[in-house]
Design a protein that fits this description.
Elements lengths: L8 H20 L4 E9 L5 E5 L5 E6 L2 E8 L2 E8 L2 E10 L5 E7 L7 E9 L2 E9 L6 E8 L2 E7 L2 E12 L5 H9 L8 E8 L2 E9 L5 E7 L3 E10 L1
Antiparallel strand pairs: 1-2, 1-16, 2-3, 3-4, 4-5, 5-6, 6-7, 7-8, 8-9, 9-10, 10-11, 11-12, 12-13, 13-14, 14-15, 15-16
Length: about 240
């Protein structure tokens, strides 16, 4: 920011007032928080997440599964072991917005058994996903529609899923899409608001959030065919 040399008493007072206001705002600035534990209830294994010095996921463990992430340029490699034995490897390619454009999952060490997903965007809005696999067959294609900054439907073949949102709750750490993508290790959705409900087939799943005094989501409850609550532990800087 440019510094303008001011000499009058009035100007000096303005500078002091501005500095004081800025200091107050900085002191009241909320800390940056990230989720380090996700605990499902009434049953299921917890997810434990650690981060590197850059704030990126370093490891993620759940039960006997441990995934280790390595970063190089626009590529992420996530290698999963189960009880110490190779399980799978994800090779994730990111675009300039930090969103995945290609995710190849290899299920054996030679890489001959694989599944591949290609993601296409309009800006930061996912519009098409194409899945192929080493088993051959026709590609599986899903198309996505958006409205007012939110993903509202996903069409795959004859199946259509529709999504509704809380208009008074912005998308944030701990909402349903954030958690789904955090556990997956990459991002393909950026919505304006937090998901309220998902209608897929004949099932409606509703999402409710609990917040602490600082406005952080502390738990998410998904209610539909079955009810499950995910509770979070945060680490704040």
């Amino acid at each position: 920011m440019k510094t303008i040399r001011l000499t009058t008493l009035t100007s000096l007072l303005l500078i002091l007032a501005f500095t004081a206001c800025k200091k107050d705002k900085d002191e009241k600035k909320k800390p940056t928080c990230r989720i380090i534990t996700i605990t499902p209830s009434p049953s299921g294994n917890s997810f434990n997440i650690s981060y590197n010095a850059d704030g990126k996921i370093s490891t993620m463990s759940s039960g006997n599964d441990i995934t280790t992430f390595a970063y190089s340029g626009n590529t992420i490699i996530g290698t999963t072991t189960t009880s110490g034995t190779f399980s799978s490897k994800k090779i994730i390619t990111l675009n300039s917005n930090g969103m995945a454009t290609n995710v190849k999952t290899e299920f054996n060490t030679s890489g001959t058994n694989w599944s591949n997903d290609v993601y296409e965007y309009s800006g930061t809005e996912l519009i098409k996903a194409t899945n192929t696999s080493s088993g051959g067959g026709s590609p599986s294609i899903s198309t996505v529609t958006w409205s007012n900054g939110n993903l509202v439907s996903i069409t795959s073949g004859s199946s259509v899923s529709t999504i509704d949102y809380f208009t008074d709750k912005p998308a944030q750490t701990g909402d349903y899409l954030d958690i789904a993508q955090l556990v997956g290790g990459f991002q393909i959705y950026r919505t304006k608001n937090a998901i309220k409900s998902l209608f897929s087939g004949s099932t409606i799943t509703s999402f409710n959030y609990n917040f602490d005094a600082d406005g952080k989501i502390t738990s998410l409850t998904a209610s539909g065919g079955t009810n499950i609550t995910y509770s979070y532990q945060h680490q704040c800087n």
